[in-house]
Design goal:
With 337 residues, this protein is α/β, with parallel strands linked by helices. It contains nine helices and eight strands. Strands 1, 2, 3, 4, 5, 6, 7 and 8 form an eight-stranded mixed β-sheet that branches. The radius of gyration is 21 Å and the shape is globular. The chain binds S-adenosylmethionine (SAM).
């Protein structure tokens, strides 16, 4: 079965690889580090047994240094949590699942894990890493088996391009994402695909998360409701569309191909995300934050910003007790554009 949209980052660690060009995504990980630490420590503290296992999944992990820095942050947070309880000699073993689409360069990830071989001092929590190649828009884990879900810079990718666009039932006027000339009906199609995907994602993860589990999501979005304020992301796709159009005009690309090509993408507003989470009645939002960073990967100053949204969903209060009230929901922290 073909997984999701077939999106994948450039493999390997050469000059043009994702691994060598993921500084922008690294900025998001650095920005959310305090939230990540707090969430992991809360999950760790909630594991009451002297010996316990914490299952942690990174969804859309890709390949490169960001995957490793996430693992290292989690290990650090678990370490400081168990150190505090030294007298009780608590041991928390961490089982990591690194998830991405099957086309991801998992080999690079596994090879780079060798760097962690020497990490294991006597106090380092024991940890194990496995790959999980499958779309996160499908069931990934047995029910109530995961303590912490993390996803950074991935959830703006849709499971597919809306069918009405790929079949050319509706045309996007030469755009490949939402651009200035995109018809309102086409905007609606992108929005609806996002709603379907995000609702599915929340439902699947809710079933897989243990009671007391948490989820931290960071993805690209819009600062407000205005559809064209997705800043540089929208501009970027407009520039690509212009280049493709010039190839059509030169007869080097067939017009029908450009007409049927759209990017499986959508950058929601905070309001849209909040509404869907609240409507699902599955999670409580513990923290939602919108932050911006410079579009230039090497420039850490403000200006020419890109907006990101970071959501953290946290502990479940009395999950699976029946009914659909607040008592069944799990917390979520969010938003970073
Ligand atoms: C920009 S990369 C972010 C990688 C990493 N989290 C980071 O912070 O550097 C987005 C990743 O999401 C993955 N992705 C997109 N759609 C996905 C899906 N439906 N299921 C799993 N992974 C997906 C892509 O393959 C890609 O590796």
């Amino acid at each position: 079965m073909k997984e999701a949209s077939g999106v994948r980052m450039v493999t390997g660690n050469g000059e043009n690889s994702y691994a060598a060009n993921s500084r922008l995504q690294e900025k998001a990980i650095l920005e959310t580090r305090p939230v990540l630490r707090k969430a992991i420590q809360e999950v760790c503290t909630s594991l009451s047994a002297r010996r316990s296992t914490m299952v942690v999944a990174d969804l859309g992990c890709s390949s490169g240094p960001n995957t490793l820095s996430f693992i290292s942050e989690v290990i650090g947070a678990v370490h400081s949590c168990t150190r505090k309880s030294e007298e009780e000699r608590r041991v928390v073993e961490v089982q990591f699942f690194l998830n991405d689409l099957p086309g991801n360069d998992f080999n690079l990830v596994f090879r780079s894990l060798e760097q962690f071989e020497d990490l294991g001092g006597k106090d380092t929590p024991p940890f194990y890493v496995a790959g999980l190649p499958r779309s996160y828009y499908r069931k990934l884990f047995p029910s109530r088996s995961v303590h912490f879900f993390h996803s950074s810079y991935s959830l703006m990718w849709r499971s597919k391009v809306p069918e009405e666009l790929s079949s050319c039932t509706h045309l996007n006027e030469g755009n490949i994402y939402i651009g200035k000339t995109t018809p309102p009906m086409v905007i609606k199609l992108f929005q609806e695909q996002f709603k379907k995907d995000f609702e599915l994602f929340l439902t699947l993860r809710f079933k897989e998360l243990v009671s007391g589990g948490r989820m931290l999501l960071t993805f690209l979005g819009r600062k407000n409701e205005e559809m064209m304020t997705h800043g540089e992301v929208g501009t970027l796709y407009e520039l690509v569309a212009e280049s493709l159009l010039s190839l059509v005009l030169k007869g080097r690309v067939e017009k029908e191909k450009l007409d049927s090509f759209n990017v499986p993408y959508y950058t929601p507003s905070v309001k849209e995300v909040r509404e869907l989470i609240n409507k699902s009645r599955l999670f409580d939002i513990e923290h939602a934050r919108l932050f911006e960073s410079n579009w230039d990967p090497q420039d850490d100053l403000d200006g020419d910003v890109i907006t990101r949204l970071c959501w953290q969903r946290g502990k479940c209060r009395q999950l699976h007790k029946g009914g659909d009230g607040a008592a069944n929901r799990r917390p979520l922290w969010g938003g970073h554009y």
